[in-house]
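Question (not urgent): is this output format expected?
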Amino acid sequence: MTEVLVVGGGPAGMAAALAARRHGARVVLLEAGDDIGGQYWRHPPGGHEDRNERLWQHGWDRFLAMRDELLGDRGCEVVTGAHVWSVDRRDDAPPLVHVFVGPPDGQGRAPRTFDPSALVLATGAYERTLPFRGWDLPGVFTAGAAQALAKGERVAVGRRVLVAGAGPFLLPVVAGLLRIGAEVAGVVEAAGPAQLAGGWAARPWRLLAARRKAGELAGYAGRMAAHRIPYRTGAAVVAAHGTDRVEAVTVARLTRDWTPIPGSERRTEVDAVCVSHGFVPRTELATAAGCAVDEDGAVAVDERQRTSVPGVLTAGELTGIGGVDLALAEGAIAGAVAAGGVPARGALRERAVFREFAARLAAAHAIRPGWRAWVDDDTVVCRCEDVTAGTLRRAAELTGSRGLRSLKLTTRAGLGLCQGRTCGRAVEDLLTGADGPGLLDPGRTAHRPIAIPVRLGELAASTRTSNREDLP
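Got this back:
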């Protein structure tokens, strides 16, 4: 029997596991959290869902049905608390996948190694935040962190919060903050009217197939209008102020290329700010497995979700940022193909519709190069190692290096605990410069042979090599 290993228990991974089972494969689904659902269907831990959970979650009934089917299927093993730390490439088979199972900060995690017939990677994405002066102050959160605390813990990040960045993800974050009782001082979108219209207004009839997204947008807009929350476009948070924590932020208007307009700065009193400028595919495992990556950092796939490595498929944000509907469609296709089956026509249609939606999303909210102008030399870029933009620029100028690896070693940018997950893309962009010649080795921040922090003792004790736990 074909054995399919799915890494990632979000919408794409769940859809892949279900499709693989329906095509007769035995499935193991690995999820790092304590329940499946991923960041999209994040909910209180330990089965303590609110009776009104549907108010917090889009498609909650669909999630419950998918989870019940997976957990009730003896042919599908769902392993939660499963942290994939490495993969071993092989010439004639999908890679071996090495996992530690248990709490991420706990002792005595159980090692397991999987040897699948086919591997589906559905590892999602990291949130991207452009650095600005003061972004290392307590009270500055990513929008995703604010959403996770609201959904998973029912906690607000502050009493008076500004939400800023780029992309439609800002809107559900606002809804979550309102539901938990926070005051939202405003929403600041970096893309200006011309950029937004260029992405969303061109050939609007082609968006009819994705019209359910318009319903979601209308719901968020109505909530904001009811609370009289101001919404600004073509502006950005360029500084946060405070001593022990955020006390205020400075918002400036931007040109079309996101360069701050002198004299347009305006100060707003807040005790928290949530910032998100989109997402970056989480490609550590895919690159370690040898999968080819596109120029935009997404894993390259064919029409059957297959990567450049035989037996390895990907789905969801790993192939490009497109939202839950695209992730579900790609997961269904990848799972069917991994099991040796033929993808359903409905999944293929959904993928085509929401790939176009994803392309419009990218055009309307894509980061533009002028943001570098608000990052002065004293702005901390790598928060783990306290590396400033000035240090990065001086290192590149003094050494004449165009190698990202050598510049990282010289400055220590991206070498801290997060291993460049927070600052990696910003480091690459700042070193390249607006008109620079480019780096010799772009994307190196995602090349991590060891994908997560592990203890040396865990590595020394890890001797299991089968795809099932050793019997006593």
